[in-house]
Amino acid sequence: MKLCFPTEGNAGLVELIGEHFGRTPTYTIYDLESHDIKVIENTSEHMGGIGYPPELMKNEGVDILICRGLGRRAISMFIEYGIEVYIGATGSVENAISDYKNMKLKKATVSDSCSEHKFGDHSKGSCHH
C-alpha cells in the first residue's frame, strides 16, 4: 500500500508536510510493505504543468493521500480515482505515518472539505489544502 504526502522538499521521512496539497513542490510516496520512499515533483497545473494532483498520484499507484486538509472538489476527485484521503496530518512525513498507523487521522469525505472557498480559489479563508 502506497501512502502519499504533499511535501516541501526532498528530505524523505523527515520532510515537512506542506500546508497546501496542490501547491507543494513535491509529493513524498511511502510504500508500507517495502518501506521504499520516492519523491516526485509536483508537475500539476497548479505549478504550471498539466493535470491535477490526483492524476499524478494515480499514475504513481498511490492508494492513500495523507494531508492537512483539502477542498470538496479535490476530495471528490481523489475518490473518483480510488484514492482514500486522510486529513489532519502535521509535522514530518514520519510523524504522519505514525499518526496514520495509530489511527489518529480522520478519513475525509466531501463533508469534511474546507467550505471557505471552492477548489482553485485560494485567496479566502485559512484552510490548508
Can you characterise this structure?
With 129 residues, this protein is α/β, with parallel strands linked by helices. The protein has a single domain (2-112), classed as 2-Layer Sandwich (Nucleotidyltransferase, domain 5), CATH 3.30.420. The chain has 3 helices and 6 strands. Strands 3-2-1-4-5-6 form a 6-stranded mixed β-sheet, sandwiched between helices. Strand 2 (26-31) and strand 3 (37-41) form a beta hairpin.
Number of strands: 6
Give the oligomeric state. single chain
User: What's the story with the biggest beta sheet?
Assistant: 6 strands, mixed
Structural class: alpha/beta
The ordered string of helix (H) and strand (E) elements is: EEEHEHEHE
Strand proportion, as a percent range, falls in: 15-25%
Draw up the topology in text.
Layout: E1 2-7, E2 26-31, E3 37-41, H1 53-59, E4 64-67, H2 72-80, E5 84-87, H3 93-101, E6 106-107
Parallel strand pairs: 1-4, 4-5
Antiparallel strand pairs: 1-2, 2-3, 5-6
Short description:
With 129 residues, the chain is an alpha/beta fold. It is built from three helices and six strands; from the N terminus they run βββαβαβαβ.
Key phrases:
129 residues; Nucleotidyltransferase, domain 5; 6-stranded mixed beta sheet; 6 strands
